Amino acid sequence: MHTNLTPINFRTRTSVESPPVCSAVKKTTPQIMRNLIIVISLLATSLAASSAELNLIPWPAKVQPRAGQFSLDGKTVVMADAPFTNEAARLASAIHLQTNAAAGKNRIRLTTDGAEGLGEEAYRLEVDPQGVTIHARSAAGVFYGGQTLRQLLDPKTRQIPFVNIEDAPRYAWRGLMLDVSRHFFDKPTVLQLLDWMADYKLNRFHLHLTDDAAWRLEIKKYPELTQAGARGNFTDANAPARFFTRAEMQAIVQYAAQRHIVVVPEIDMPGHASAATRALPHLDGGMHTYHPAREETYDFLQNVLLDVMQTFPSPWIHFGGDEVNTSGWSKDADVAEKLRAVGLAKPQQLEGYFVRRMTKYISEQGRTPMGWDEIVSAKPTTNTVVFWWRHNKPEMLEQALAGGYAVVLTPRSPYYLDYPQDQSYPKIGWKLLNTPEAVYRGPLLPTNLPSAQRKQILGVEACVWTERIASVPYLEFMVMPRMVALAEMAWTPDNQRDFAQFSARLKPFMAQYRQLGIQSYDADQPDSSLREASPLPTPASAAAAHANN
Question: Which residues form the catalytic set?
Answer without folding.
Answer: 211, 272, 323
